[in-house]
Amino acid sequence: MANPRSPTPAEGSNDIELSNHESHIPDEEKHQAADDTDIPYSVFSKSAKRWTVFLVALAGFFSPLSANIYFPALNCLTHDLRVSLELINLTITAYLVCQGIVPSIVGDTADMIGRRPVYIAAFVIYLGANVGLALQNSYPALLVLRILQSSGSSGTIALAMSVVADLAPPHERGKYVGAALCGPNTAPSLGPVLGGVLAERASWRWIFWFLSILSGICLALIITCLPETARKLVGNGSISPRGINRSLLSSLIKSKAEKSTPRPARPHFRIPNPISCLRIVFHKDTALVLVANAIFYMNYSCVQASLSPLLMTIYGLNALQVGLTYLPYGIASGIASFLVGKDFSLFQIAEDEEDI
């Protein structure tokens, strides 16, 4: 039977040096290394995450709602403002153009100064535009205020996705994305129904008064309850924000999750660059998804904008009946966004388990 090999002097000296080195490591560094492995992705509780996602889903509801809510009132607008239907359709085009440009500016700004200030500024602009639209009496005012309305609301969906990315790790993100998109996906069908009821029973002006009231409630909820989630400012939520980045509720009730940790340096403010995000178009994987969605949305927008006057002209439907024809799309979209989000989360968990 072979005797076990005794360590050579070189090996013995290496072991001694390693043990001496480990013995000289301060206990604080050992504890810090152990703590780093236990740092959660987000310190927000499940209930706090759900409430935050509900708020951003409600905020994202307004962009597609505003784009579609006055479709049943197009003929009323042409009559009251004494302009052609083609000019009224131009306000829809202007709204959609802003809807495509503004999110890139809003997203870049939110990364610099935080989510809350951008949300508040967006809804202040949106609320003011709605009040102006309810009071205006001319086509130029309608066109300009619709552009301003789109500028205030169009960035909310991009902000919602940023908030979800702040709160949820990738393996949980699908279900939160699905929940956050329930608002934007159901709004295109609920908007025409609400617009049809208001245009038929009251006046097209009440469409914008309704949006003013609803957006005012949402703005109050954001100021009071929406926490700051930008990871550059609050990390995983353990760093307490200051000033406008801190909600009124958290100012009154200090969260138990807050710790006296070093505050990261606030990024220097610069002019937002909407061109920088276009670089993802040249990535072949994202380009394929973008092109597919762009083709779908182009066809969808054409059908949505032309459906109302066609149904009124050909079938003689009133504004309320036209609004009801938009319901099937919204019901299907709401169900699909919820189910796809849950399926995506399950797929991510299964993929992570295979990697392990």
Can you characterise this structure?
Helix 6 packs antiparallel against helix 7, helix 7 (115-135) runs antiparallel to helix 12 (205-225) and helix 11 (182-201) packs antiparallel against helix 17. With 356 residues, this protein is mostly helical. Residues 9-25, 28-36 and 352-356 have low confidence and may be disordered. 73% of the residues lie in helices and 0% in strands.
Q: Give the overall shape, derived from the CA principal axes.
A: globular
Termini separation comes to 41 Å
Oligomer: single chain
Are there runs of 5+ residues with pLDDT below 50, and where? 9-25, 28-36, 352-356
Series of secondary-structure elements, N-terminal to C-terminal = HHHHHHHHHHHHHHHHH
Average of the residue pLDDT scores: 81
Number of helices: 17
- Going by helix content, strand content and strand pairing, the class is mainly alpha
Biggest sheet record: none
Helix content: over 70%
Q: Work out the number of β strands.
A: 0
Radius of gyration: 27 Å
The fraction of residues assigned to DSSP E strands is under 5%
